[in-house]
Amino acid sequence: MARRTGRPSYQLDKPDVRHRRTVRFVAVAGVIALVTALLGGLIGYQLGRPDATEATIASIKQDEAKRDAQQIVELIETARRVRDQVAPVLAAIKTETTAGRAPDPAQARQWQEVMRQAAEPFAEPPSGTTATNVARGGLRGAVQQASLAVDAYALAAGVPAAQRAALLDVTARQAAEAATIWSVAATQLDQISVDSGQGHQHVFLDTDPHEGALTPDGAAEGTGG
Question: Which has the closest alpha carbon to 86: 121, 117, 124?
Fold first, then answer.
């Protein structure tokens, strides 16, 4: 029987040689894995890091948000002051146009001055976001409509009695329209106040809801921001 042959003894790896090769292989593999991970992380950081344009845009948006929040606070304060000026005039017009008596020219001139003062804060409005501009524009429109109502009342004071009733009717309708426009603007102002973190701010006129004006919701003042 022939003897089985194998590799010559001088070709056989000794145990310590095989061990060293295994260690070197593991070390090299570890280095490759580490380098790959570092390169992947660096590439991911470079790709994910915002460039100069994106950083500038983000900074501009942040500044705009801060500016708009400040504008909203200032607009709320302005709306409260203007409401306190306009509300008594609109209420008085409603009373006068239904009383059946002749309009008072002196009273009309006084109301016209009140309307002039109420319109001053809206003469040169700042540029804000669309939502804030809508609220401010609505308040300005309400004041302008209230001014028209006062002017119609003043005209009624200087016409013959036969023409007076028609002018007083127009005066009453314009005053009601001013209150409705204000209520829409106040609703918008309430919403942007909540969105900006100021909570509900109900700067509404004291109007009859049956006349078409919007009314404040049931949320407590300052909540919801």
Answer: 117
